[in-house]
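QA checklist item 7 of 12: single-chain prediction sanity check.
[x] sequence parsed
[x] length recorded as 240
[x] structure emitted
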Amino acid sequence: MFSDAKSHMLYKLRNAMICEFPSPHIYLESVFPPEFYEKLETLFPDESAFLKIHETGVVAKGVYDERHIFQFSKKNIEKLPITHRHFWHSFSEWIMGNDLMMELYQKFLPYLHLHPILKDRQDNVQLYSDAKLAYDLTNYSIGPHTDHPSRLISFIYYMPEDDNKEQYGTSFYVPKDPNFTCSGGPHHDRSLFDSVYTAPYRKNSMIVFFKTANSFHGVDPIREKRLLRRSIQYVARIGS
């Protein structure tokens, strides 16, 4: 099952066209075979396995309280029901493995010069990756930002309950001031930007994007009641 799923995703990724405006990104649909997606849905951990993001120390208490995460680690996976453990051990080893990271790196290789750190240093790049499961609740939003300078490539894999909430995908923005850029860090006032594209929040779909000084993205406020916005989130980072 895993071999077929990995090959299916790589076929999609290798043959996908990169959209260059406002920054390099790819939107993929039918990322995995239907039976593998069904497995992901069936074995998605119960909400009790997740932590509020502030409980991980990534942000302060009271910030993004609607976001909950399950970080892939041996310790966390061992706490899952025994019927879930083998699947998520295997999945986490693959998603955080070198093979997938290098596939993504090679895909975006022509754009390394656009990265704030790598524009002057493109040889001997050291990378590492991490990934997590996430779900967001009603009222979650995140303002336009370009991500931390250490990030190189990110993807968000969508797992909605149905395909009737497409508007809740990741949005891409352009500043109203055409000269404004950001090397990374702060989240900006939404009113200073125009939304140019929202990746549809559909089952078994994925948005992949490359970090630049104008890769502004975010999520507009989620107003849907009783929404559980599920995803798998991945980041390839530049090592020191």
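[x] summary fact logged: The chain has a mean pLDDT of 91.
[ ] second reviewer sign-off
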